[in-house]
């Protein structure tokens, strides 16, 4: 048995350190998390994500020894921030421009999926604008041949950002429109094809099959889900459903300039494992921002 009197100076120091330590108990974590949990739910983070975070914090912190006087509440909040960052930070960060330029055979094909009203068409125009500013040639495929007015709407946006749209008539095969857009890009040496797909208000069998066919025909390099941050938990369900039909590689969350604190970003990343690439922060074509995990965590905690 070592005591304070015997032992080397190193051992003495270790002994005193031990005396000064307390263990973090499950109760400490539970209490601190109860409060933080309310903040997360108020920020629209889905319950299943909140529960996963709670488990993670318990795992990381319960039983850990800290120095007497350590602010446990602060420690737990820091642990929570870290766990949130972990969910949001993709294993491999996607640098879109880099990715597009590194593709050997042009064009790079991006298919956009999402429900009506989520901001899909506006987002495509914003992204087209951003890509052009980065020196890339872009064409848009008007593959929503279902919803009345969809083709004119995408044409109007495209006109304003100076990008050509490839279209057929309403009722035409969306995959055929996308295919033509790719041929157009190949012939003109354009870098990127953005495919606007149909939204509907529910993901039924038809829409699933349509998405699958577009994916089969165009072999997109990237499938981006566009979700409305104001849609709360239902946007997480949408992301899951689309992800079952076609694998989603990235997410753009719109309307973050509005009230929502954007917890959906966290829930979606957690639910489908895809990174948030950009967020929409307004109705203008410049209102698209690369997603920054740290900025987001600050926003969640208000
Ligand atoms: P779509 O049906 O998914 O193609 O949706 P739209 O692109 O037509 O967008 C629906 C509405 O949301 C339009 O009034 C857009 O201006 C608006 N919108 C899209 N993105 C944003 C955003 O980031 N912020 C705000 N405030 N409005 C947006």
From TrEMBL:
Q: Which InterPro entries match?
A: AAA+_ATPase, P-loop_NTPase, Signal_recog_particl_SRP54_hlx, SR_rcpt_FtsY, SRP/SRP_N, SRP54_GTPase_dom, SRP54_N_sf
Lipid bilayer topology: Peripheral membrane protein
Q: Name one GO biological process term.
A: SRP-dependent cotranslational protein targeting to membrane
GO CC terms of this entry = cytoplasm; plasma membrane
The SRP54-type proteins GTP-binding domain covers which part of the protein?
275-288
What's one Pfam family here? SRP54_N
Binding-site residues, GTP: 114-121, 196-200, 254-257
Q: Which SUPFAM superfamilies match?
A: Domain of the SRP/SRP receptor G-proteins (SSF47364), P-loop containing nucleoside triphosphate hydrolases (SSF52540)
Q: What is this protein called?
A: Signal recognition particle receptor FtsY
Source taxonomy:
Archaea, Methanobacteriati, Methanobacteriota, Thermococci, Thermococcales
């Amino acid at each position: 048995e070592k005591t304070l009197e015997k032992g080397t100076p190193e051992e003495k120091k270790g002994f005193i350190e031990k005396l000064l330590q307390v263990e973090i108990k499950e109760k400490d974590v539970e209490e601190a998390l109860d409060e933080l949990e309310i903040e997360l739910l108020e920020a629209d983070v889905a319950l299943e994500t909140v529960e996963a975070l709670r488990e993670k914090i318990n795992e990381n912190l319960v039983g850990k020894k800290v120095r007497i006087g350590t602010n446990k509440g602060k420690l737990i909040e820091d642990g929570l921030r870290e766990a949130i960052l972990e969910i949001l930070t993709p294993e491999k960060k996607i640098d879109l421009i880099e990715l597009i330029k590194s593709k050997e055979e042009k064009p790079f094909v991006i298919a956009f999926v999402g429900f009506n009203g989520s901001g899909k068409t506006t987002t495509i125009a914003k992204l087209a604008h951003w890509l052009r500013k980065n020196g890339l040639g872009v064409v848009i495929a008007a593959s929503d041949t279902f919803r009345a007015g969809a083709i004119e709407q995408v044409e109007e946006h495209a006109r304003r950002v100076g990008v050509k749209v490839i279209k057929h008539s309403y009722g035409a095969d969306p995959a055929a429109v996308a295919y033509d857009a790719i041929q157009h890009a190949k012939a003109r040496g354009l870098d990127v094809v953005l495919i606007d797909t149909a939204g509907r208000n529910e993901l039924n069998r038809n829409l699933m099959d349509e998405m699958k066919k577009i994916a089969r025909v165009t072999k997109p390099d990237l499938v981006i889900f566009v979700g409305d941050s104001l849609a709360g938990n239902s946007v997480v369900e949408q992301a899951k459903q689309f992800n079952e039909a076609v694998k989603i590689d990235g997410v753009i969350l719109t309307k973050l300039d509005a009230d929502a604190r954007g917890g959906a970003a966290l829930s979606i990343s957690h639910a489908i494992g895809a990174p948030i690439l950009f967020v929409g922060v307004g109705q203008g074509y410049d209102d698209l921002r690369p997603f920054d995990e740290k900025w987001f965590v600050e926003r969640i905690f208000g």
